[in-house]
From TrEMBL, chain B:
Residue intervals passing through the bilayer: 39-59, 109-133, 140-168, 188-210, 231-256, 293-311
PROSITE patterns: ABC_TM1
Chain positions covered by the region annotation Disordered: 1-24
GO terms, biological process: transmembrane transport
Membrane topology: Multi-pass membrane protein
Record keywords, A-Z: Cell membrane, Membrane, Transmembrane, Transmembrane helix, Transport
Lineage start: Bacteria, Bacillati, Actinomycetota, Actinomycetes, Micrococcales
CDD domains in UniProt: TM_PBP2
Domain ABC transmembrane type-1: 105-311
First-listed, main subcellular location of the protein, grouped into a coarse class: membrane
Highest rank taxon of the organism: Bacteria
GO cellular component: plasma membrane
Entry's family note: Belongs to the binding-protein-dependent transport system permease family.
Name of the protein: Carbohydrate ABC transporter permease
Amino acid sequence: MSTMDLIGKVMQALVGLAAFGVVMALLLAFLDRPEDKPRMASWGAAIKQGLRPRVILIAAFALIAVLARVLYGAVPWMTQELTNAAILVGVAGIAVVVLQWLLDRLLQPAAPRVRSAVMRLLGAALVIALVILAQMAESIPALDWVTPALVLAAPIVGWPLAAALLATAAIAFLPDRIRRHVRLIAWLVAAVAVVAVAFVLEQGREQPIGVWPWAAAAALSIVGVLGYLADQHDDSKPMLVFLMPAALLLTVGLVYPAIRTTVLAFTDASGTFNGIENFVWMFTQPEALVTLGNTVVWVILVPLLSTAIGLAYAVFIDKSRGERVYKMLVFMPMAISMVGASIIWRFMYAYRGPEQEQIGLVNQVIVWFGGEPQQILQNSPWNTLALIVVMIWIQTGFAMVVLSAAIKGVPTEQLEAAEIDGANPWQRFANVTVPGIRTSLVVVVTTISIATLKVFDIVRTMTAGNFNTSVVANEMYTQAFRSGEPGRGAALALILFIMVLPVVVYNIRVLNQQKAIR
Amino acid sequence: MSSVAVTPDPEITPKSADASLGGTTRADRVKRRLTSPGATIAALIIAVIWTIPTFGLLLSSFRPAGQISTTGWWTFFGDPQLTLANYGEVLFSGSASSPQLGEYFVNSLAIAIPGTIIPLVLAALAAYAFAWVKFKGSSTLFVVVFALQIVPLQMALIPLLQLFVTFLQPFQDALHEAVPFISERQFLPVWIAHAIFGLPLAIFLLHNFISAIPADVIEAARVDGAGHGQIFFRIILPLATPAIASFAIFQFLWVWNDLLVALVFSSGTPDTAPLTQRLAELAGSRGENWERLTAGAFVSLVVPLLVFFGLQRYFVRGLLAGSAKG
């Protein structure tokens, strides 16, 4: 791995998180508008309050300038123009922050609204002055460092910025009733303007500008709408803004795709409607039937065996010495990935010819007992059982932990009463303990069933669905992303959903009843 | 859902303590009857069977390559030889045939950390709103969010990928153009996918906690002039730390261990593919190359096992609450 790659990856993570942080900070800023904040009582407090963010800002701008200077010459993509621009941004940024701070102090007696308006007017004047200065840069010897690119950029950035500042200054004096509506309109107009300007600019260039104007427009609209929602006088409603990102992601990422998949299930590879053909394929073609059959075997065996073993183990180790260690050993597979578990078990199942020494423990045990070593993962139908063992190995720990906690909840008095009545240990277990942990048993069985229905990683890693071991989730992936049959994949996903649905609904109902009892 | 198995513990402890105080430990007597030698032996056998596969893999990963493929790991005890060569080979070797897992390890981290933080923050904000804003249809909306947990993520894969290709890819390309050393194959789609799939559970879990915070506390803060931001960071977040920790650990392990989302949304190249994807690929293409597979598998297990042994309490809670996820 080259260092460049590593830097790129770390950069991605940092930039991604920083961008996310900025969006979140904006959200919070909307909810706590500075105008709404109570006036500071004393100068000292005001300075203290305003100082910290400004120091951070100044440091940030200084960092930009310094970083640009350091990188210049060190890395190839840091051109002279880019360096100049960065230094310019840094210096100008620091100047603006300091100026704004001084002004803020001077205007302290005025109302917040007036203060921000004056500030914006001054800012707009400054920007306009800079734009004009940039256009005259050629004729002023002191400004010879201004490159043509900067001259071109100045009006493109400057005029909209000045317009925005003037517009917001004006909006601040509108009556309360219509202000937030006008604000929203202003944001949307700005969004449209960005795209329009980009189109105009694009006419005169060979190179297309690409998607950036659209990104800017989308960002402006989102900010506008969020601000509109937040800008209400009722105190709690603005918090609805907090719901927006989650609601948006869930709608775009789960609700819409689920609906789309349902529709897709009735189309063929080219996307045209073909009725229930995909489902006919699923229930008639031998390979698809094997898949469904395997899934049924999985969903019967795994919950049953995991729960049974987990329960037995929980009972055996209950209140014994070293219970914690016992639990940890069996629960550990739950923490590791199914891919990791699959490799662990492939190693257990590893096959060497009968004349060779075995390296897989399972085959070695077979040999020790005088049998022939087997190609465990290739001999159908036993290979499906071999895969099921892996899932049981993983899920037993889960069953054990839940049931162990439930067993400890069974009242000792009941067990004693049963003992006095002459019940033997097995009867006590079957007639007192098991009824006492019934709800937990249901939860464990249903939860493991759901996990089993969706099992993908194990099959993918151990056999990739070959040798008649495929299950619905794996076949869905194969059809949709490997064979180019998204319709069939969607149909399988739909079947999966239908199979999971009753289990989950039942699970939720049990949980609700349980809650009601508490 | 977390109430299933977590709550009994605190209820039990005082009760059994009472029992052991009063009389000659009646509970002990009952207990002794229940644990027979046979049960202990059976438990021991199960524990050994459950531990042996992992132990065998761990031991094998430290054996010399030639020995792994010719003799069983149990012969180690007759002829003990250990080496770190396998780990050096899978992690750092630059040769084309080596798995080069170091790179994928970085990818896994670069996917899992934002893949945990993003849904956590979004869900915390949403849960705050759900818990403290009274608006029409709030409870209905909450039930809808909770119900989204039942949508298997398989249902979302195909359309979500289409959406990403249409709307996200142009921005990724543009970003690559603007900053050349960020590859055009980025983590962004995987982050978003994990954030989406993690949200329903996260909102549910955090809402349960945040709505239990006394209203007085928040009212008092508002009277003192605290804004939403201050309330959120100074009051909500500290008080909800246990729930946040549980979810964070669960989500981190879920993302770290995930294969399906990675297969669909990452490029499958060393640029973005996580460890699990590379391992699954190795198991498929070089299934008999055990000196690499054993060490590679263990590299991917180290982080989850550390989390498991270090933060077991939070892990169990997150797991129990999240077992219906996905």
